[in-house]
Design brief:
By secondary structure, this protein is α/β, with parallel strands linked by helices. The chain has eight helices and seven strands.
Length: 272
């Protein structure tokens, strides 16, 4: 009996679509995305820099669990050549590239008066320049494939309402939104089946050192009343990969936080 294809397999007209996910070595959002794509029938290349060993362990586990190939590519995205190399390695290993997810990012709180030019440039290099270069490299491959491909960038909902002490981080993530639209136009003009979109996570996968009071405050700041999880983001990525009529979109996955402030003024009070 023939096994029904998953939506991803149908979209890319193959039983074995191929995905490369940057920043998927550590057990964070990128790893969740890579695992979900593997679960949905993709061969996956996990990219890691300092987390190569955990990435290799995940790849080995998924090969057994999902029956799909998974391997690891490594390198620092501070180096431009890494972007072309990891795309080329993935394409050479699998013979195709259907999905690129630009998930790698850095963020650390730094007070405005303490930010250096070198720190700002590093944020832009890893969070935006590398995503553009990886997208360009993947786009070259996808434009030569009959089925095209899908590129998903990971942005941040809070570029609309930035937190304090992240003045180097937020400009670098805001650039991802414009880059998404630009790449959608550039690559879509080369091949109408190459699509580029962006997912903008809200509060998801908080670090263990966040205290319970802060966790509750963050949950209360959403319309859905909870903190998000990696699966929420992974499902949104999969949707954008599967839907062939969506491109150039930046999709908030934030529980409504972008449109809601828990100050009591939006619900039950008409402030004019």
């Amino acid at each position: 009996m023939a096994v029904a294809r998953t939506s991803l397999q149908t979209t890319f007209d193959t039983d074995a679509p191929v995905a490369l996910v940057t920043g998927s070595g550590a057990a964070r959002v990128g790893r969740c995305i890579a695992e979900e794509l593997s679960r949905r029938g993709c061969h996956v290349a996990l990219h890691a820099n300092t987390s190569a060993e955990p990435a290799k362990e995940a790849a080995s586990q998924w090969r057994q669990q999902f029956g799909r190939d998974a391997f690891v590519v490594t390198g620092s995205l501070e180096e431009d050549e890494t972007c072309d190399r990891i795309v080329d390695q993935t394409h050479a290993h699998f013979g195709r590239l259907d999905i690129l997810v630009n998930s790698a990012a850095i963020w650390m709180p730094t007070k405005l008066d303490e930010i250096t030019g070198d720190e700002i440039r590093r944020y832009f290099q890893i969070n935006s320049v590398a995503s553009l270069l990886c997208g360009r490299a993947a786009g070259r491959v996808m434009a030569n494939q009959a089925h095209g491909g899908a590129i998903i960038n990971i942005g941040d909902w809070a570029t609309e309402r930035p937190y304090a002490d992240h003045a180097a981080y937020f400009p670098s993530k805001a650039a991802v939104e414009v880059m998404t639209r630009s790449l959608a136009v550039e690559l879509g003009a080369r091949h109408h089946r190459v699509r580029v979109n962006c997912v903008q996570p809200g509060p998801v996968m908080l670090t263990p050192d966040v205290d319970e009071k802060t966790v509750q405050s963050l949950a209360d700041s959403t319309l859905v009343g909870r903190i998000g999880c990696g699966q929420d983001v992974a499902d949104a990525v999969a949707f954008l990969c599967e839907n062939t009529f969506v491109t150039g979109v930046c999709l908030p996955v934030d529980g409504g936080r972008r449109i809601f402030a828990p100050d009591g003024l939006q619900v039950g009070r008409n402030t004019g």
